Amino acid sequence: MTLLIDNVGELVTNDVAIGRGPLGILTDGALVVGDDGRIAWVGLRSAAPDADQRLDADGHAVIPGFVDSHAHLVFAGDRAAEFAARMAGEPYTGGGIRTTVAATRAASDDTLRANVARLRREMLRQGTTTVEIKSGYGLSVADETRSLAVAREFTDETTFLGAHVVPADTDADTYTSLVCGKMLDGAAPFARWIDVFCERGAFDVDQSRAVLTAGIAAGLGARIHANQLTPGDGVRLAVELGAASADHCTHLSPADIDALGGAPADGTTGTVATLLPGAEFSTRSGYPDARALVDAGATVALATDCNPGSSYTSAMPFCIALAVREMRMTPAEALWSATLGGARALRRTDIGHLGVGARANVAILDAPSHLHLAYRPGVPLVHTVLLDGEPT
Ligand SMILES: [Zn+2]
């Protein structure tokens, strides 16, 4: 069954060969989804071929589905009280992760699964068609392994984050050895990526290097939580190891910006700077310097960092609005970063754009233009979402 999506007032393809500007925009466009759930044709509606079915976009904007390349969805419990305390003036230190670890260890598989399913549905309703899901609230061989097994039920983009925080009953070096050994052995069959929280109070640069190197040796791709709360060596470690992404990038030196600017990502190589403005919003912290990264030539992605402590939002449109208002990205840059930027951070070329051959992961907006995503913050503008060409 083929499907013609017709009467698209503004079609964002993210393919500069198809349309105008960096978003490859077509006015009065159309696209055809083939039997295989991939884009079979894209162009002006006046030239559109016939298809078995027709979906009328009613003159609205159509964009690629969002690619949320950084989310922590396998957990139990809620930290609303901690958020309220923080808003009342208490600082964020990252120590609350242990609260979620206790709740996650105590939860059944079914409880964890139901929570991921709920958040995945929430994301889909808001236009997110691909999500990366990390472990990191188990911190034992058994709990990290089962967290990843649950995550794998929902996405192929699963990330082993055993090195999220050092559990209370051990020290960082002993725990790092466990992460690089038995825990990695348990997790690797369910993971595509390995990640580490490189930060004062979590894992230092040598421990982070050990974790990522062990993961790479086990066949996983590398990504890192770097330079979130303090300056440090995480970003440069990411570039040195050829990690797909350095995430947060809130406290960058000129050398960090140069390193990311010198390693732009094309979907197969390079290190993306993934910015997570929901975390700065929810911890009332200063935002990363997106402008400096873009101007240096870095590939920038936007993601939610959805987690119960420091950023409990699942909304990519909200992150786009923050990126535009607070980080001085243009609306076009922010949308690109939330779609094709996320795809680059996951080293995927089949998502994040609507060129021929791409997966038909599509969001139809209740708006005439992508500009409305930042112009109308907090408004549910995602009207219809297709996943591999199927309505969700
Ligand atoms: Zn994170």
Please describe the topology of this protein:
Layout: E1 3-12, E2 25-33, E3 39-44, E4 53-56, E5 61-64, E6 66-68, H1 80-87, H2 97-106, H3 109-125, E7 128-131, E8 133-134, H4 141-152, E9 158-163, H5 172-187, E10 193-198, H6 205-217, E11 221-226, H7 234-241, E12 245-248, H8 254-261, E13 272-275, H9 277-283, H10 290-295, E14 300-302, H11 316-327, H12 331-345, E15 362-365, H13 372-375, E16 382-387, E17 390-391
Parallel strand pairs: 1-4, 1-5, 6-7, 8-9, 9-10, 10-11, 11-12, 12-13, 13-14
Antiparallel strand pairs: 1-2, 2-3, 5-15, 15-16, 16-17
Helix pairs in contact: 3-4, 4-5, 5-6, 11-12
Overview of the structural elements:
It is a single chain. With 392 residues, the protein is an alpha/beta fold. The chain folds into two domains: 3-65 and 352-391, Urease, subunit C, domain 1 (Roll); 66-345, TIM Barrel. The protein is 35% helix and 21% strand. The strands form three sheets. Strands 1, 2, 3, 4, 5, 15, 16 and 17 form an eight-stranded mixed beta sheet that branches. Helix 4 (141-152) links the parallel strand 8 and strand 9. Helix 4 (141-152) packs across helix 5 (172-187) and helix 11 (316-327) packs across helix 12. It is globular, with a radius of gyration of 20 Å. The model has no long low-confidence stretch (mean pLDDT 97). Bound molecules: zinc ion (ZN).
